[in-house]
Each structure stands twice: as structure tokens, then as C-alpha cells.
Amino acid sequence: MSHAASTRRGPVGVAVIGAGNISKQYLDNLTVFPDLKVLVIADLFEEAAEARAKEYGIAEWGGVDAALNHPDVEIIVNLTIPAAHVEVATAAVNAGKHVWTEKPFSLDRESGLGLLKTADAAGIRLGCAPDTFLGAGLQTALRLIERGDIGTPLTAMTTFQTPGPESWHPNPAFLFQHGAGPLFDMGPYYLTTLIQAFGSIRKVAAIGSKAKELRVIGSGPKAGEEFTVEVPTHVSAMAQFESGASSHSVFSFESPRVRMGFVEITGTEATLSLPDPNHFDGDIRLWRAGDEDWTTVPATGPANGRGMGVLDMARSIRAGVPHRATGDLAYHVLDSMVSITESMESGTFVDVESSAPASPALPEDWAPEAATL
């Protein structure tokens, strides 16, 4: 989709739909970025919207229509429950608003692809979490790869292993249901990073397992209660990318030994150890051919946290250029995870039909706290 520059000037008006816990993480940043102006907080439970609006000094609140019908709102930040993401995003598109959605983009290919087509026909932008790859840590690593510091990227290994969240989460059952599990819960962070480094995924192969049919809640008022595990809790996945590069990833809720945030990319000249893709910052380590130890490369650039993707979208709207954390990227990640699930079920390689355009690196002097509009 080509993008014409916005005829509006000044900060971009934003409405947040969904006043739950994650809204605080967004609003901590959205309300202090000078190029954004949060105008409305909306929620099905208007008292929740009112409480959150008063907490952040936002003048207006109400139901979903208060956000969709506001004439000065240009971007809807969709923080509703996953099952409502596509419905709310489609309503926003039909209201002429650009949309940023918390992950997942959708729960299945059909609804996600339908949303992409609806937005494209309307000339509306879609963006989606994770935007952690816009943080200083991963941006620094991607600039090193782009600059050729590791030579031609060849392979990657990623690991996310924990015992599972039921020991500390007071209501963890949803994390073990369809549309969740370690693959769909944590996979977007790792796969998005790999796609930024290697390009689109072309085919996948995977094996999955489930050690326990029942798990026990370990904390909170439901401690001691059992719940059913619906999805594989250990996933080992291989991917081949359009560049010819390949990766091996482990996503597990079955490991007493906690290992998370492990991403290593090897090229013809060096291996790069990236920071945790679930975080916005962290140093990078480089091991060149012939070295005997890692060289630490400090991260450079902003590490402000959630909402950077919304800000990049807003500035891109004004400039008439593509934003970085696009709906196409989020759909490609979803498509890849569904393909991994299909491979686990079939025992065969599965082709990934979608693709995602490369996202250019942010300039090192990109400053979220600056007023640029």
C-alpha cells in the first residue's frame, strides 16, 4: 500500500480501547510522547475507562463508540481481549481510523487476512505488537547485521524455556488453551526478530509435546486447583527463510531450568548474541572468526518500551511513509505459527504462504521524547 502524507499537522490524536492492566504499560509512554495526544479512553466497562482516564489526566472516556466517533482521533490503540481484536480493529477501520493492536493480530488466518484486505481497501494502516524490535537492543543488532559485521547471515538459534507460568500466575489456564501455549504466547517476539534479520519465512517443520494433561495453579485464590492443558507445551521448530537462512527455535513450558531471551545469529564472519526479544534494551555480544571471547557492543538508541510502534506509525502518517511494525508483519508471524502447529500435527514440512516487507532500521538519533510534528 502506498501512503500519502497526512493533511493534518501537529500531534496525532490517539484513543485507547481497553482499560485493563496492559493499558498502564502503554499509557505510561503514550501520554508523554509529544507527537501523540491521547484523547479518549474507552472500555465496555465505562467505569474502568473513567478510572484509567482520571489516572492519566485524560479528559474523555466512555464506551467503544466514544473512541470510534471522536473526530480528532486518528489512531485506535486496540488493547481488548484477543478474541475481540479483529472485531474492534474492523470497526475502527470502518470508522476511518488507523489501528494499532496488541498481539495477537488475530486468532486464525481467515479473520486476519480479512482484516488486512478491509484495511487495504480503505487505505487504513494497521500495526501490531510486538514492537520490541524497535528498541535500542534489537535495533543495534539489526544495524550490525545490515552493516555486514557478521557477513552473510546464515543460521539462528533461539530458546525460551521455563517450567510454565502456573506457579506464579493466579489465573493461568488461558495460557494453556488454543491460541496460547509457549508458541503463541512467546513466539511472536522471537519470530519477529528472526524475520527482521532474515526476511520472510518460507517453510517450517516442528515437533510438539505435552508432558501433562492437567496442571495445578500455584498461587493466588485458586491455588491448588487443576486445569486442563489443551496445547503442546514444548515446541521445537525449524524455519527456512526466503534468503536461504535457517533457524531452530525451542518454546517450552516444561523446563525446570529457566532459559529465556536466547537469540544467536551466525553469519559467514561472526556470531551475534542478541538481547531478549521480549525487552526493548540490552547489550549485544559479537564473536568474530578467530576471537577467543565475546566483544560487547553497547546498545544505542531509544529504549522507551511499549508504544514505540504507535509513535512510529503516527510519525509515518504525517510523513506519508511506511511504518515499521505493520499488520502484514504481524499476519506473517501468525501465519508462520499456524504453519508450525500444522507441521506438528502432520509430521511434514509446511509452506508459509504469506510474506512481510522488510522494516528499515530506525535512525540512531530517533527520539521518542522529541516534538517533531
TrEMBL record:
<dbReference type="Pfam" id="PF22725">
    <property type="entry name" value="GFO_IDH_MocA_C3"/>
</dbReference>
<feature type="domain" description="GFO/IDH/MocA-like oxidoreductase">
    <location>
        <begin position="139"/>
        <end position="272"/>
    </location>
</feature>
<dbReference type="Pfam" id="PF01408">
    <property type="entry name" value="GFO_IDH_MocA"/>
</dbReference>
<feature type="domain" description="Gfo/Idh/MocA-like oxidoreductase N-terminal">
    <location>
        <begin position="13"/>
        <end position="126"/>
    </location>
</feature>
<keyword id="KW-0520">NAD</keyword>
<dbReference type="InterPro" id="IPR055170">
    <property type="entry name" value="GFO_IDH_MocA-like_dom"/>
</dbReference>
<protein>
    <submittedName>
        <fullName>Gfo/Idh/MocA family oxidoreductase</fullName>
    </submittedName>
</protein>
<dbReference type="InterPro" id="IPR000683">
    <property type="entry name" value="Gfo/Idh/MocA-like_OxRdtase_N"/>
</dbReference>
<dbReference type="InterPro" id="IPR036291">
    <property type="entry name" value="NAD(P)-bd_dom_sf"/>
</dbReference>
<feature type="region of interest" description="Disordered">
    <location>
        <begin position="352"/>
        <end position="373"/>
    </location>
</feature>
<dbReference type="GO" id="GO:0016491">
    <property type="term" value="F:oxidoreductase activity"/>
</dbReference>
<dbReference type="GO" id="GO:0000166">
    <property type="term" value="F:nucleotide binding"/>
</dbReference>
<keyword id="KW-0560">Oxidoreductase</keyword>
<dbReference type="InterPro" id="IPR050463">
    <property type="entry name" value="Gfo/Idh/MocA_oxidrdct_glycsds"/>
</dbReference>
